UniProtKB/TrEMBL annotation:
Segments forming a coiled coil: none
Domain ABC transporter: 50-290
Organism: Ornithinimicrobium faecis
GO molecular function, one term: ATP binding
Keyword terms, alphabetized: ATP-binding, Nucleotide-binding, Transport
Ranges of biased composition (kind: Polar residues): 1-15
Protein name in the entry: ABC transporter ATP-binding protein
SUPFAM superfamilies documented for this protein: P-loop containing nucleoside triphosphate hydrolases
Domain of life: Bacteria
Family: Belongs to the ABC transporter superfamily.
Length: 404
């Protein structure tokens, strides 16, 4: 679903000054704005078959978990990917790392088409792409001590020999703020926040270029969330890391992200530099998500826009036609919305930089106030489709060991 009118960041090797969007400013640090693209996903689709039948495994439909994602992440950048639970964020993260088979599309990492790598070559490239999970307890082998967990990946990739291991382990623990005594402990002996530090050390142990952090703080107490986010930020500077941070909560990615992509039912509906997106969300879905984030100032809280999202996320096994958001959109129009799927495009709105792209047919008219929101009638989703998704949604558990 590439849109030829949309400006894309430069690919690896493309360093022409005009290749990057955003002539009109935006908050993205120049350091990452001008850097080359490390991850380049084009037209990525992951569809899971829905099987039925006792004797014959008949495919009766598909879950369109990821359905046309174009996304680039520059070296040293933090890209925040947000959207409601079930919209395909984790599947996309796994697809980037080739842990999920692509139904369509391509992922280039550091200029290399990952689909062209098989066996040992893919395993070696995986070293450069690590994952941090929501629940480290579920992804770390409970029978291994922290020392064993950290050494496992390093040994698999021949990163340590003899005495160097002790030095490297000490470095890793220091980097994530854990005491040396942590080495002899098992994952269950730590608190949630400390365990996440172990998970991060595990990812760092193989010296990766990219870390996909999938809901890294969702399972943590609010008081600990900021510490872990700050740790990720510090490590990025220290180790020149590139991040894809996945979250269902816009507040979590706000302060860590250079750019943010908002996902709805398998594809991006808006993408912008983080400050631009938070200052002026343009897609109706982003506006609704943003209006649900509380503002500390009571004066602003009382006057700000409140958009309640009607109904649940439709089933990805039976996505709505046209704009996938049309069943819940307060600005839905009688033309285009339910017949044509909008592409992510640069909009013609004063003061909006080309780096802010929106997948809505009516973005300009909504921004100008020419179109006003209306009440949304909740459409009932087909319960049989919903059932088939839940029955077959056997998300394979991912463990840190899958990445070594
Ligand atoms: N292995 C799988 N088989 C079938 N359906 C799956 C599988 N993995 C995920 N799904 C479905 O794909 C959709 C997107 O899931 P996911 O990527 O986990 O969303 P998110 O991370 O945004 O919550 C969901 O409907 C989920 O049930
Ligand atoms: S295209 Fe139509 S339904 Fe979709 S977000 Fe825009 S106004 Fe709403
Ligand atoms: Mg998820």
């Amino acid at each position: 679903m590439s849109d030829t009118t949309s400006e894309q960041p430069a690919r690896s090797g493309d360093t022409t000054p005009g290749a990057l969007a955003d002539e009109q400013g935006g908050a993205l640090a120049t350091t990452t704005r001008d850097r080359e693209v490390l991850v380049d996903a084009q037209g990525v689709k992951v569809h899971f078959p829905i099987k039925r039948g006792v004797i014959f495994d008949k495919t009766v439909g598909h879950v369109y978990a990821v359905d046309g994602m174009d996304l680039q992440i520059r070296q040293g950048e933090t890209y925040g990917l947000v959207g409601e639970s079930g919209c395909g964020k984790s599947t996309f993260g796994r697809a980037l790392l080739q842990l999920e088979e692509l139904t369509a599309g391509k992922v280039h990492f550091d200029g290399v088409d990952l689909a062209s790598l098989k066996g040992e070559k893919l395993r070696r490239e995986r070293k450069n792409m690590q994952m941090v999970f929501q629940d480290p307890l579920g992804s770390l082998d409970p029978r291994q001590t922290v020392e064993q967990l950290l050494l496992e990946g390093m040994r698999a990739h021949n990163l340590v020999k003899g005495g160097a291991a002790t030095e490297r382990l000490a470095e890793l623990l220091k980097a994530v703020g854990l005491p040396r005594s942590a080495l002899n402990k098992y994952p269950h002996e730590f608190s949630g926040g400390q365990r996440q530090r172990v998970g991060i050390a595990r990812a760092l142990s193989v010296d990766p270029k990219l870390i996909v952090a999938d809901e890294p703080v969702s399972a943590l107490d609010v008081s600990v969330q900021a510490q872990v986010i700050n740790l990720l930020k510090d490590l990025q500077d220290e180790f020149d890391l590139t991040y894809l941070v996945i979250a269902h909560d816009l507040a979590v990615v706000r302060h860590i992200s250079d750019r943010v992509g908002v996902m709805y039912l398998g594809s991006l509906v808006e993408e912008a530099d983080a400050d631009d997106l938070y200052d002026r969300p343009l897609h109706p879905y982003t506006r609704a998500l943003m209006s649900a984030v509380p503002v500390p100032d009571p004066k602003i809280e009382d006057t700000r826009e409140q958009i309640l999202l009607a109904g649940d996320l439709p089933s990805p096994a039976n996505p709505p036609s046209g704009c996938r958001f049309h069943t819940r959109c307060p600005w839905r129009q009688e033309t285009l919305c339910d017949t044509e799927r909008p592409q992510l495009r640069v909009v013609q709105i004063d003061g909006v930089p080309a780096s802010q792209r929106v997948a809505c047919h009516w973005a300009e008219q909504i921004a100008s106030g020419e179109l006003q929101p209306h009440k949304v009638e909740i459409e009932l989703t087909d319960p049989s489709a919903q059932q088939s998704v839940t029955a077959d949604a056997t998300e394979p558990p991912t463990s840190a060991a899958d990445l070594t």
